[in-house]
Write the structure tokens for this entry.
Amino acid sequence: MSSHSAHFSRFLGAVPGRLHVAAHSHHPWPDVTFEAQQQAWLDAARLIDDKWDEIFGVLLPEAATHITGRLGLSDPEAIAFAPSTHALLMRLLSCLTPPLRILTTDAEFHSFARQAARLEEDGLAAVERIAAEPFATFPERFAAAASRGGHDLVYLSHVFFNSGYVVPDLVALVAAVPDPEPLVVIDGYHGFMALPTDLSGIETRAFYMAGGYKYAMAGEGACFAHCPPGYAERPRDTGWFAGFAQLSTGSSGNVAYAPGGARLLGATLDPTGLYRLNAVQRWLDDVGITVADIHTHVRHLQDRFLAAAPHPELLPPVDEATGERGNFLTFRLPDAATVHAALHDVGVITDYRDDRLRIGFGLYHDDADIDELLRRLTPIPGWS
């Protein structure tokens, strides 16, 4: 598949000469999102107070249908939306009674890792973190810990943000949780719209959270969770959106919750990100691009980059990978921050986490971009 850079002309043309290779961080938005953002404004002006009926009746159902279609899920009504995955996480945590027993990994993104550490500080959680490395034995070690039982929350990423490691069999790891009560949560942010993902085997047991900022190409404010029935039905952290249907009729007795994923909704949000999300999904369908196509394109670019010249230590190592890696490359460097800054000075946008430099490709790249990246990268001190 050739590059679709022409569809990203506004982002790519904003700063001539900039080479953006951080698709895993802030993915450029395709041009269709410009009109979508305008449409959000025009709809607000046209509908004013009535816009919430449009949002709940048209915008959210369309977005949920796109999401479930990409993930092999059967019920669009099981999708909840929020401005961030952290907001959804907090609602899930509010369903549990401290002290919590949490099983997770040492490779979770800050939105969860920071929150878990803070609960731990106050004695509100006991957190068991399974080491991501060595990657080759991670599934076995995590499954063994899960099978011991006794957890309130089991939380892990599909793709680890600080290495690109792909958990090879989510179904097996979810099945390793022996008790029916714990909440099981998959952080899918680095996998959604980057890796072909079929959640049909775990849709009745596991939550799955992701959003638009990365490979969904929709920017901020468009996050979601798939919510299996029977779990986290009455979050203490709850907003008026979760009871939207009761606004006109009133309520009595216990606080009522909307059915399906809407039970995890919060309060007033800016819907603009969901306009962009829907526009991107329609565009992909119109031009016939699948998630498998995106991943195949990126793997071709990764292979070209890795084969062209010496490079620092790659994570995960080829012999510890599962045959897949996320749509970004992670290199362990003694001074990743210095290399990142030097690249920025020559107009190359990457990012780093601790001692790891991340380079990510997307639909807007082609072979010529890889060649140009190598040309600018080769003279950088400390790279190889």
Q: What stands out?
A: The mean pLDDT is 95. The CA atoms of residues 23 and 360 lie 5 Å apart. Residues 33-283 form a domain with the Aspartate Aminotransferase; domain 2 fold (CATH 3.40.640.10).
